[in-house]
Amino acid sequence: MKLLCFTLGQATWILTVTVAILAALVYYFDDTASSKYTSMAENIKTLEENFRGQNKSCFILGASGETGKVLLRELLERNIFSKITLIGRRQLTFEDKEYENLVQEVVNFEKLDDYAAAFMGHDVGYCCLGTTRAKAGADGFIRVDHDYVLKSAEVAKAGGCTQFHLESSRGADKNSNFLYLKVKVYH
Asked: Torsion-angle region of residue 171: left (phi > 0), alpha (psi -120 to 50) or beta?
């Protein structure tokens, strides 16, 4: 019985020490993690300020869609670009004062080479182009979501654009049985 009590007491002591060590480690890493997040936030702020000072410009394709609207609003709020150009198939109307300095270029995506000037001189491009199969049919969907995107990237690159950010799709796969996922793969 005495041996059993000693073993239980020793086990309790080991368990207590282990819990204390684990608690100290969790506290240490948790404290370090929060300071890392603060540091990351400060780094992002510094990066934005540095980028803002470089007088960069961007364009957005598909600013009339839901994702494009959100992107445009975010870019205007962050104010990191000296110039934002909306490139689309029609002129957009905005009532808020924050949109008054936007440049808009209306293009025909079927003849994009004729509108190469709209893409010239931008540092960054954002592509949120898209339609639905229901709206455009299978061929129209492929033309908008794949062909227009690729051609836009080519024209932008030729115009000096060094970054082209594309909204694609999770699960995009050229071997997919689903047209949507197959079309959202870009080479």
From this structure: left
